[in-house]
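User: Fold this; tokens only.

Assistant: Input:
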Amino acid sequence: LFGEYEQALVAAQTAVALNIDLAVAWQTQGAAFSALEDFAAAKHSYEQALMRDEENADAWASLGVVQLKLDEFDAGMASLQRALQLNPDQALAQQALQLVEEQLQAAESGE
């Protein structure tokens, strides 16, 4: 399975090299890095995508998840909220925020 993600990463890196201003190429690269659990590189890729398309709710949601994985809680929550401002139906942001809320409630109740 990692071989497929590595192939996707190479394809995304090629797309970025061919058109550095293409937000979707950066976003695809971020997804590949995330799948390979290289969250720092994924964060950079999503940030690059958002520099090119700041209204991309999917990129905001993906960035938020990566930020949470990097223990950047406040930034991650802000990114997820931004995703939902842009698209209230953005499923990844909804799921991530629900999971965070459940974890916070469990921690508060001592579970």
